[in-house]
């Protein structure tokens, strides 16, 4: 489908990557991984045609359509959400306008027997066929479904984009790209501003889409659920794994260990060779052997060990001073902005030492309740902060509170105490402030860099109640793990507002769900909550589809002013579409499994052969194919189970 051939990119003295080659196949869903600065975003821009490499080429079919979502974008402020999203269908709208023009011409003409009249009819017929193939009549329904899936409400459709934050604008751009149904989707951090429900919707969309996907993300759960291949950029080259992210982590560690052993063996051989040369250099009887060893040394290609991420430090918060038994108590808390009710009747108590999560769709009041707890905004009801509670607060705008005239190092040096001052550079490195970056002034840092710096400051404060509002948005997978380990070891209480399931997994023991102007408590971890929500959704679907007392629902019953019959029709239509997608997924998986089993059998036959048994690459390839087979089989089982449930 796409060939990346001997690609090289140089910025300054050190090349970003050199002679990189690989193939993107149709239906691949690839995770592009590597340390920050390795060149992941640059790779996407080159494939999208927005940046030119120093050398090499990207070969792709002329008719290939590409949808590219960058981390930062600029949207028009003069259009509504619906109008901006409709840009995805600009080509279709142009065809429709041309068709209207042809219809008008036919209506105005009377030369029915002329060649020109027949040409107009033929052109109109072709246009109708084109529009029929792309199902242009279903455009409004597709726009609505996609915007709702990404977290918008119907009342948002006619609001101008200028009324929305940068995160919501990113969703509009993502909606446009998904609606275009491109052959290749290039997504750079698509989940940064999505809540859990929207991420799950995007996962389902990508796994059932016919588009090839190449994406960058720091959301490990998202990568595992969406991708089936992982390409790592490291040390100026790539390593290609036909597995999802979790399996890649294991194989990557094994490869580094093999490199280390090979490097040690080579160093030992080099040392022994040099000792031999020095020992017998001046003995005439050994002259031939000495010269042979010298030539042998000259021919050695040094084995390099890929750069290992050494940022995984065991950082800890300072010991938390003891607080009261209940750091936070809410009794009938209510918050409104004018006539707009955010939530009411909020009742809960958070015990000392608990780690809890605030989750829910954006705009349901998570950050608002945090501001109430911080006493930053007025509210109704009783909200008590326990005795001796000292709060460490990380807000989404926390970066704005940093002193812009200080350097990165000085910002941390001013809050560090004790032995931690000797490890400031290591701590900064753990959050991607390595090398000369520590001498940058805060005022020249990007928004993401400022957020990371604010997070480091918080790590060093002496507090007993942590309140973190979307703390992982600008952290890579390694840095998130550093933070997660620190919160786990924290002996105080923590409230975490986050959409990152992998970050919350194993960290929180209670989930507070915000939605429908209520706050509902769920005991257990994040995946216990998600599992319960999925079961609830299925039960609700069954209740909707099952007529009561053997009778159909009354035509007068409506939801959001849409008649129940229309709702049922749309549900049946959606089920049919979902069934078709699952059938295609099952068929594709079955074909893939058959091919993989055949390849595995061929390699096993070669491994039995005495000559092949010494070929190490056969064993590596066998392991890769077995891993890929397991991944595809899991995909087949999941799709088959979902298909059976629908049927």
Task: Describe the secondary structure blueprint for this structure.
Blueprint: E1 2-10, E2 15-24, E3 29-33, H1 40-48, E4 55-59, E5 66-69, H2 81-86, H3 90-108, H4 115-133, H5 139-149, H6 166-179, E6 184-188, H7 196-208, E7 212-216, H8 220-226, E8 229-234, E9 237-241, H9 245-280, H10 287-299, E10 328-337, E11 340-350, E12 355-360, H11 366-373, E13 380-385, E14 391-394, H12 408-413, H13 424-430, H14 447-459, E15 465-469, H15 477-489, E16 493-497, H16 501-504, E17 510-515, E18 518-523, H17 526-545, E19 558-559, E20 562-563, H18 564-608, H19 616-646
Parallel strand pairs: 3-7, 3-8, 5-6, 6-7, 12-16, 12-17, 14-15, 15-16
Antiparallel strand pairs: 1-2, 1-4, 8-9, 10-11, 10-13, 17-18, 19-20
Helix pairs in contact: 3-4, 5-6, 9-10, 18-19
